[in-house]
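Methods — Computational structure assignment.
A single polypeptide chain was analysed. Its primary sequence is given first, followed by the predicted tertiary structure written as structure tokens.
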Amino acid sequence: MEKLIVGPLRATQTGTLIIIDALDECRDDEPASALLSVLSRFVDKIPLVKFFITGRPEPRIRSGFRLESLRPHTDVLRLHDVKRSSVDSDIRLFFVMQLPAIAKNRSDCNLSEGWPSSTDLDTLCAKAAGLFVYASTVVKFVASKDHQPTERLIDIVSLPQSTTEEGRSGLDQLYTEILQQAFLNIRADDGKFYSCFRSVVGAVLLVSNPLSATALSDLLGISNLFTTLRSLHSLLIIPTSELDPTPIHVLHKSFPDFLTDPGRCTNQQFFVDPSICHTEILLSCLRVMKGGLKRNICQLDDHILLSEVEDLPEQRAAYIGDALKYACCFWASHLARSGRSSSDDQKVHEAINEFFTTCFLFWIEVLSLMEKLDIGVYALNDIQQWYMVVSCAELPTKAGSCLWLFRQEFPASGSMIASVFYWNTLIQSVTLLPRYTILHSHFPPHHLGSKSATVWSSNKQSK
């Protein structure tokens, strides 16, 4: 380094740009990239030289750029932070240049000047979603010498939600290599590690709304979440700090498609079974609600209207939090997608029964505070459907009673305006509960307390 680069450049005082592409493909066993470690020793001696370095954000590369002597001289540009329209424009240009060239080099093709069409290009760019490796894979797929380019392109654009063909053409192999390299030092028989991997990564892929590292950790009850994800920065968008509220999510749809398909992800250590993972998330949601839900969770004044609470968003953030909010909104959705697992079936039944015994009223309260009472209607429909179709069991008596109560108070028709009409009292005396309800017979006094969160409709109040 000193003889070939540093010495000559320092002697000539020549301004130079040196490009190092795909640094992640330079294999070494150092905890920080060996090349970056060497560079850090000489960077102050060649101030006129600029280095442009590209590579996947693997742990050793991220560690290299954090070296004290490099950090002041480093500007990091993450591709997913580049303006999407700019990336799409470049990807479109790539398709415009590469696809017609395939046809021109084939003696068995006679394609029109308008191929590919503008509509085809729009679909390809949408499916690429800013990922250049996807675009490169599509070009390789279309360029197959054993197929007509037009037919291959139709296979891609005719299924805008599928990435199967792209996976077969190289993406699946790429994902497999990245995962194997990321966990090269993990023993194949380390079942605890791989179980944690499937739980954490599966949750990132399958949650209904992306969550921050803190919220996801609270939801799953896993403290070492960041450690598990440390080697996956080239596959997931992960914030640099656990305290960063930025949600963790995938770079491209093809990755969850790959990891949740046993025909594509053949390594059982990495394969995420959606049914099992949805069950795990469901049980996590029920655990979080059991521990977090309580009467008058936001500690508001008695008999106050939600529309009168000036700092309601701040109150929700302080007392409910993202993990509990997610659990309340989406637990039934995960139940509907969980299927039936013989190993966890009993756990699910017991957890749901306990929810209706101890959490139901407080769940309604949180939905109202979030102005999302309509979610309750769909959630209870999902619960009833799951018992009928998936579980093939009768709805527990208490659960059925809660469903009846909720539907009496909140019919599915009409808009759900929690802040004005349907939540006119957050805290009500038990003696004021409507006589037709079954709360007294199905909820013990210690659950309701001296005061109880309840729900009223404007019509019933006016009677």
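Note: The mean pLDDT is 82.
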